[in-house]
Amino acid sequence: MRTLRHYTLLVCSAVVLSFALQILSASAQDLEVAPASPDFVPTSPKEGWRDLEAVEVNDGTPWWAEVLLYIPNRVLDLIDIFRVDVGVGASVGGVVRVTKYAQGGYRQMLPVSLRVGDFGRQFPVVVETSNEIGISPAFKQSADRDVCDAELGLGLDLFLLGGYGGVCLDEVADFVGGIFLVDFKGDDL
What we know:
Elements: H1 2-28, E1 40-44, E2 48-51, H2 63-68, H3 70-81, E3 82-99, E4 102-109, E5 113-119, E6 125-128, E7 132-135, E8 151-168, H4 169-179
Helix pairs in contact: 1-3, 3-4
């Protein structure tokens, strides 16, 4: 339970820091009314608005925000790697995932399973009501569970208890790339 509190505190802190930096960045710039056309973008307070084709578009994130968010982004990238949860509720079956495109199994919720764990950057509690059944390419995946493209995982549900463990290899690449300031998934704050 203590680990869950630390995890929740870490994610909340990263989100609050991101919003604070966005507010500081917006207040530091001289605001100007935008032209009616979406083909114009702001360049700087002195130059005003320019034609979109005439300027290279920047995401607007100042360099110091990227420096301050480096550690929180790496922590969130690390959290994205693992998919581990335990469930309580009437459910039976099992599932094996080699990737999002190669998975198979049968899991039926009778009618619901309360899952608690690491679902990436999602809230750590999920109420799973959707069944999973089949073998790829005809596998019907649970609508309540996000599966990453290169996820390796195994899950088993035995009536009142269930568990799932998985690793997202594409998130591993995003984590390693993030160390060198390359964001493959485009999910940095």
